[in-house]
Amino acid sequence: SGDPEQEFFADGLTEDVTIALARNSELQVIARDSTYAVHGQDTDVRKLGAKLGVDYVVEGSARREGDQLRVSAQLIDVKTGAHLWSRSFDRQVADVFTVQSELTTEIVAQIAPYIGRSEAAAAAERPTDNLQAYDLVLQARNRYRHGANDPQDILEARGLYQRALEMDPSYAAARAGLALTFIASVAQSGDGRENAPELHLGLSEARQAVRLDPNLGLGYQVISFGLALQGDYSGGLQAARRAVE
């Protein structure tokens, strides 16, 4: 739509559904950064799927107007281009996590109908009960993504994550995001970074995030990043492996 507020909300919803799907051990879900690289490209879904190396593509749209939310999604078989499933949701914004849960459950049911109930429940787990905290995390993700180089974006994202944690201190994804901003600042600082206070703070926050949610891939990714900066490549590799389990 060209509206930055709509875009960050849609991107954030996409990222959270991707994370939820990836929690299912029967599915191999490509990283959000890979799909973001082709974001907005007008191309045939079969060509897009081949480019990404996937069998299925989930595409859709999300729009928020005041307290109203509209989400549409469809599941497409890359080989045939056939639409296997589609659904639209018109809900209150406060129901965003219910929409995420239903989307995830129905997509998984189409791809892997033999999924166990426990895995379905894990995939649909609610990240926070505080919608304002969730909205702040979406804004923070939109402001800074790993690999960006603008220090101001990192600082602004950090402030948004901190505000989210003031509202919900147990919000693991917010804590992992906060950790990333500390470690990313150190990565940009140059010499002496292995002993930088922000690096230790970032690792502490990331470890707390995975204690809150032992299945949080981002938390282990941030730990891996931080340990590598410290020169602990063995520990970093172990954390990276845990991130993709």
Task: Describe it.
The chain is of the alpha+beta class and 245 residues long. The chain folds into 2 domains: 4-123, Rossmann fold (3-Layer(aba) Sandwich); 131-243, Serine Threonine Protein Phosphatase 5, Tetratricopeptide repeat (Alpha Horseshoe). Helices cover 59% and strands 12% of the residues. The chain contains 11 helices and 3 strands; from the N terminus they run H-H-H-E-E-E-H-H-H-H-H-H-H-H. The chain has helices at 4-22, 32-36, 45-52, 96-111, 117-123, 131-143, 151-167, 172-189, 197-212, 217-230, 233-243; strands at residues 56-65, 68-77, 83-92. A 3-stranded antiparallel sheet has the order 1-2-3, sandwiched between helices. The chain is globular and about 55 Å long. The model is unreliable at 114-119 (pLDDT under 50).
Q: Main beta sheet: strand number and arrangement?
A: 3 strands, antiparallel
Number of helices: 11
Number of self-contained structural domains = 2
**Major beta sheet, strand line-up:** 1-2-3
State the low-pLDDT regions, or none: 114-119
How are helices and strands ordered from N to C?
Answer: HHHEEEHHHHHHHH
CATH topology of the largest domain: Rossmann fold
Q: What is the 3D form?
A: globular
Based on the model shown, name its key terms.
single chain, 245 residues, alpha+beta, Rossmann fold, Serine Threonine Protein Phosphatase 5, Tetratricopeptide repeat, 59% helix
